[in-house]
Each structure stands twice: as C-alpha cells, then as structure tokens.
Amino acid sequence: MTKSSTLRLAPLLAAASLMVFGTCAVAADNGWGAPGEFHGTKSQVFPPWQNGANNPATSKGLDFTIPEVDNLPDFHGSIDNPKLSIFVGGNYFFAMAPLVAAFEKEHPEIKGRIYYETIPPGLLIRQMEHGNTITVGNMTWTVKPDVYAAGLQKVDYYVQHGLLKGPAVPYVTNDLTIMVPKGNPAHISGLQDLGKPGMRLVMPNPAWEGIARQIKMSLTKAGGPALATAVYDTKVKNGETILTEIHHRQSPMFLMQGRAVAGVTWKSEAIFQEKIGNPIGNVAIPAQFNTKAIYAAAAVKDAPHPKWAEAWVNFLKSPTALHIFEEYGFQPYTQGK
C-alpha cells in the first residue's frame, strides 16, 4: 500500500488514546487510576464494553483485546472479503450488534460476512475520500463500504454530490440529553447550568461531530447566543470544557473518571450506559429547548454488494429494526417529524 492511499488518521487516533487514557495516571483509590469514586473494572469503563460480543465475525482467532491499550472499539467484523460493509456514524454503535444479528437471522447466507465501522460521520467521509483506507496505530487497511448512514442532512448532501446513490432513506429520530454521573453530584437541572463558571464539561467536538451543531442550537434556545458562546468558546479557552478527540462516547468515560460533571449527548447513549450498568444518569432537556436528529442511510455509489446494500437500508425501516432502536430511546421517523 502506498503512502498516498493511506488516510492520515493515525496521529489523531493515537493522540486521542493518549488523551483519554494517558491522563488517568493520577492518584486514585479505585485501582486503575481514575480520580472518581467508581470502583468498577477497566472493562466496565473502557470500550469495547461488550467484551467482543459486537464482533460479527464467526472465526476470531487470537483474542488480543486490552482495555485502555488495544481495543479498536469502532471496527467490527472481518475485513476478509465481507459481503456487506457498513459505514455508520457512531451515534448508535451500541445498537449495531443487535441490528446485525437480526439481519443475519433474516439472511443466514450472509452470517459472519458483515463488517462495519462506527467512527464519526465526518471521519467516515474522509476515509472514503482517501481510497476507503484507514490507519489505527500500526495497522492500515482498506474496505470499500456498501452503505453510509448518518444524519439525513449529511446523507442528502453526499447523494447530491455523487458520493452516495440516492435516495437518502430516513428511519429513526433521536433527542439530546445532559449526561451526568449517577446521582447528578453537580445538581445539574438544565442547559443553563452548563454555562456557570466552575462547571466542568465534556462536549462533542464541532470539528467532526455533527451533534455539536444540534447542541449549539439547543444552547441558544435555552440561553441565547451567550450560553452557546460560554460553553463552546469561553469555557474551552479556560479549560472548563473538554472537547472530545474522537467521539462523544468519550463523554461517559470522562464523567466516570471525574474529569467532568456533565456533557450533552444523544439520549440513546445515556440509556445504553445505564443498560450496561455504568454509573451514568441523564437530565432531560425539555422539548422547547431540544433539537431532534433524523438518521438516514443510502447505498454508496458503485457499492461492491448493491444487493446487500439495498437489503440493509430497507431493513433499517422494518418493524424488527425499529423495535431494537426503540429500546434505546429512538423514535421511528415519520414524514415531517
């Protein structure tokens, strides 16, 4: 593989790993370096939280997964001749495993032949623009996707620009929430509290996370432009807002490490953290301040497996898939919703 074909994400991902994990080497009493009071194990806090259960490959070989060090939580399955490759924004990484399992049950001929990635939508596009190649640490690989899934607006954009084959197919919606440590020790009651001096936050990075746009809209609804500026400018500059380096799934890790007391995420992510038993809670954002996301998918232009691309996109609208989504707080998309 030539250098020109290799996506230059290695420094980003490596730096992110150091930022998330390297900073844990502070004095603490829970046995692995986090400053909070959570006494759980590394495998509870750090991905992959399902201990490999999300991997749809049937033959896994040597299991070399070390939380904090070697875990590759965003890459699932085998790159050895997959029959369906899905690039999906990581906003529902936790739902992908049951979705894939349900799809395989309906189509047993494809079992064990699905590969999917769950990095932020903007980074997935950058990977596609760099020959579908990605580098993580010391490993570089290339997989051409069959399906791309993200927010409806982004999917529509890339259909119009020829990267995806239309139409964009919307299937579910999601709402924002304020994620907090269990028990809400900072007594967060609403979005306006996030602008208070001394309130330490972890927030999605606007550089590549689409959710940041919705969060800024909600902050503006709740407290005007001044609140959005306080959270995403003033507090970033003075160190009271930490911006994620890869994805807002880092938010619960930072909260459990005691590095922040609140952060805005999708409601589904807070529900997932609670489902797996992590000490995470959430503070609901009223409808008048919330900003709804619409998720959509489309086949990639010249997809290697157009039959399976179409089947997956149609599956996302099925009662089976919608039931899985609803377990995490998503709502079925209806026209004009």
From TrEMBL:
**Which named protein is this?**
ABC transporter substrate-binding protein
Q: Which UniProt keywords apply?
A: Signal
Q: Name one GO biological process term.
A: molybdate ion transport
Keyword Signal appears in the UniProt entry: yes
On the tree of life, the source organism's domain of life is: Bacteria
Q: Name one GO molecular function term.
A: molybdate ion binding
Q: Where is the signal peptide?
A: 1-27
